Please model this.
Amino acid sequence: MRHTMFLAKGAVLFFVLCMSAPHARAQNQTPANVGPVVGAWTDPDTSLTWTKQENGSDVNWYQANAYCSNLRQGGYSDWRLPTIDELQAIYDPSVDIPGQDSDGEAVTWHVKGNVKLLNGAEWSSTQFTDGAAWFFYFGNRTRRHYNPLDSHIERALCVRR
Model:
């Protein structure tokens, strides 16, 4: 009888593991396989999914990385800070979205997907040779690099594959 009970417990454990495994895999599927992600936009050119807005406050590069790494949105937990090339790929000079720069001056953001930018200067995961980190400015397609400890005007816009 003990042997039967052991098998029954093992069968239950096996059943639970099998039933939970597909759910875990679904969390990492691309949006094309599971439908649109709430609060996000998928770029049809790259298949990358972007959050619909930045983090909302100035942060240094380390804080930006942590923000994206810890983000839980749309049922996904694999958000990350984009590379500088990925950020530049969503720049579109034909798109005009009114906004304000860090001084409160009116500015036009040029970003695809109707992504809401409050500041327009977004950290990337790409580091410069001296350890500085690159950011991209959506007002005029500028790439710059700063000390990763600076939190002058940069924000975090997250992406996932």
Q: What stands out?
A: Helices lie at 2-26, 31-34, 61-70, 84-89.
